[in-house]
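Notes on consecutive records. When two proteins share a document, each keeps its own sequence and its own token line. Never mix them. Below: protein one.
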Amino acid sequence: MSTQLLPRSTGYLLLVVLLLSVLAHDAVAAAVCGAMQAGLLVVAQRYPAARAQVLAMQIAATWLPILVIGGAVSTDYLLAATALFATRRRWRWVVFVLIVVISGVVHGAWQPVWPGPVYVALGTAASGLVLYSLLRLPELLDRLSDTRSELAQATLVQERLLIADRLRAALGDQVATVRDLLADARRELTTRPDQARTAADQAASATRRTIRAVREIATAQRDLDVQPVDGAPIARLVPRLTILAIVVGLFGWTANQAMEMTDHRLSIAIGGTLLSCLFLAGLYTPRYALPLLTAQAVITLLPLPWFGAYWSAWLILLATAVLLTLRGPWAVAVVIALFALRATYTKPGVAPIDPSLWLLLALQAMLALFGLARFWQLSQQLNRSRAELVRSTLHIERLRLARDIHDLLGLTLSVLALKADLITGLITRDPERAAREIDEASRIAADAQSEAHALVDADAAKSLGRELDSARKTLADTVAIVELGYDDELPDQAGAVLAPVLREAITNVLRHSAATRVRIECRRRKDHLHLDIRNDGARRASRPGGQGIDNMRARVLGAGGSFTAEVSRGDFLLKARVPC
């Protein structure tokens, strides 16, 4: 048995071992009935549409044979597991408990230990729950794995809705106020220029307040300390169901051992409880698994000379812990040694047990615990990977939104503020041009609201061609010479990467230079799209760094391209290359 990978057939293997242990009791008729019940259980697991009919057949196959062969051997755990598969959710556990109680009453009279009904009921509950869990958990793990992409998509949608609300709150009233003020300036332009100038000043101030609010949102998006939660019910169900089955199995085993052993009953109960707690602690704290295994080995091996066969059952629990903790051939060797040691012990005054029966019972216990424990570990690992996927998806989306808010919306609002300042100076000097600029500023304000919506729309394409035309218009009012050259057809995917880069570059030209000449060229060369921007008037304090440059570099490098930005002889040079 591999300690690295739990076979998906562990549940079926345990089912076979359970039936072989019935056969080893020389109960051939019970084994035949059990085989029929096992087949019905598999049908209930694999074919949900037939579960109601299967449950009725399983009840008949479980309890009718008692009238002929008696109830010395119980296979009611197969009925209990079938009920968990075949009963509707709201009644599932009620039916399970009812079957457990009936099993204890019906089969308890045939048991030599006291109290027989309790002993049988515990065995039915533990075996039924363990078998159900091992048969069900592979399906749940598959569903957990399959929904990872859905989880990532849901995380994106949730984050985009959140940022949309924040942008709406920051832009809605402010941009509406700016548009109203621009409308007032347009209306008062020829009759009351002073009032028009005041309105333009107020529009510029309102725009700058909006820019500050938007920058605060972009900064908040870079806060990666938030720990999102995986809200999928199945993500919580798998480990809880598994650990419940382990706890029931361990303490059911302890109770059965204590009831079977008339001597040292209290010592068996205390020892089994302590060893079960150490086993569970090793699962929950893997970093201390080896010290806990050592403690378990000491408590298991030291009392053997005094308690003998009464204590030897815990060697199988120790073997299971060894398989879970150690790796490689040494683990297998230790397990074989523990099994050999267990084989040397028999109950005092009782004939030696059939080796095949003893081995089957030991394998049954080890398979159940090892299988459940490995499934618990796998489910925990998968849940951690889902949580990490949520975090990484959320962080990537937040960084993307922060860049887009800064690069795209930030440029539009910056241009709007510059327009408002320009309008203020033109109102008295050139009213006709001021009127044109007011109309243009009103259009830009409307564009800002549209762009805020596009930021959170995954399908909103950023057209590089439109951005190039927009750059020409934006620069024309403040830069004397604008040279623009680009191909008629630009690749969409590479263009979507370079569109925000172009926007941020134009923002830097307007805000951080005294440019009189700007040259922009965008061409496809071989398998790359090239964007080159050169402007004069680079200020001495300017440097090729800062958040805007970092955002541009991150976009281009993230797409597998190359990016350079440098100041040379008073000119600022930007070169971006993106694979087509």
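Protein two starts on the next line and is unrelated to protein one.
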Amino acid sequence: MNGLTLVGIAIVVFVAAYAGYGRWLVKTWGIDPKAKTPAVQYEDGQDYAPASRFTVFSHQFSSITGAGPVTGPIIAAMFGWAPALLWLLIGGVFFGAVQDFTALYASVKNKGKSMGMLIEQYVGKTGRRLFLLFCWLFTLLVLAAFADILANTFSAVTKTGAQNMPGAQAASISMLYIFVAMGFGEYIRRFNPSGAVKFVIAVVLVIAMFAVGMNFPLYFDAQTWRYVTFGYCFIASVLPMWLLMEPRDYLSSFLLLGMVAGGVIGVVVANPAINMPAFVGFEVNGQSLFPILFITIACGAVSGFHSLVSSGTSSKAVANETDMLPVGYGSMLVESLLGVVALVIACAAASNGVLPKGTPFQIFADAVGGFFQMFGLPVGVSACVITMCVSALAMTTIDSVARIGRMSFQELFTPSEGEKPNALESLCMNTYFSTIITLVLAFMLCLAGYMNIWPLFGAANQLLSALVLISLSVFLRTTGRKGWMLYVPMTFMFFVTMTALVMSVMGIVTKLQAGTFVVMVDGLQLVLALALMTLAVLVVKHCGKEFISGKAECPQTEL
């Protein structure tokens, strides 16, 4: 088997899925091109702000495409390339893309409400609070893991004492991205340029930022970059969407889409042989294919976090309902394609069925960097470009997570319609207070290191997808729409993730019995794992009761 064949199969499957299954969902549930979307109807210059189709696609794609689609498939390759490829294809088409699109659809049809507020409308107040608490705890894990990844990527000095020139250059470019994006956002807001003009200006700005950043690298240690990263998260959380996040994601999309294109073109040109067996076994290195495969490959197949982006930010920027398919369904398929490319690249770099040494990002970066060099880019420039692409994967995620975490905390204390908030609720609903409390707790988790957080993050992320799919099934049933296409994904993901969390708890208990239990690391993970499992069971209980009865009130705006 060769890499070109696998990537070719993936492209055909994803294009067919978008044109067939995606459009069938649109036709089945119905959209109104003439309807006023929440972004238009409730425009406030802060969270609700209509944007062009590509701008919203860029925001959605940049936000959801974090470290997962590269890390997960490469780790999962230990079971062989076939199981990983099948899950990326099946999961991406029937699980992830459906979830992302349905969450966006439900939110746009309900005044741009987040998943938590949608649950209150269709399940009840208790279900809303349980779900929002789960979401908020989850955002702490994401912020902590990705901020630590960024800090170590930007760190000027490696563990061996050597200077990390590509990391320092990428750090400089990333800082430029923040300030340039704000200027770009102000320009777009004031002059409303055409799509072609905006595209040309964006390309020029990206090239200029690379030129400046590569010549003026920033040399700071990892701890300094942790402070800077959380400072950026604070700014991104409180500033209007149009001023920072949307223009930054638009500029970042050129990097991320370029990385996907570079990987695909590189595979086409090089047509590398796959040096991993199709299937290794159901158990490898003490790891069982079920449920590890479906937890390891998260974002490339299905991710609960995506639904928070769809309903938390993207739904408030969609200018026309026809944009929902490319934004919700299409962006997920592009991410799944990135997962397939990462899998092919890693398996091609293997030797005698053994993956090369290094982290998944190092394996991926070395291979794609080699493709760029094949296209004529110098080694130094290629290393900087790839490092910047990798850091962009994390940076375009944490700003959205910071904002979603802030909003989840605020909504957790938001009284139901017709009720007045008390003093505590008013404080917790404050934008600055909710942002600070979220970031401070995430920073404390970050100090444990992303390797200690990642397993719990993966399980929580997949469990969140199960809860979202269950909640969306209630929405579809209550509003008289077909929802059977969600039943298998929601059931499968719930049992997979609960199994993984039980295994994680058992592993931590084993450490406690062996005397290797570390309170600040294992203790925190144990508390969070038990809390997430408890909240998940309660959410399923409340959603299941409403799903069976189908008695939730259906507002006129839904029909």
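For the record: Residues 552-559 have pLDDT under 50 and may be disordered.
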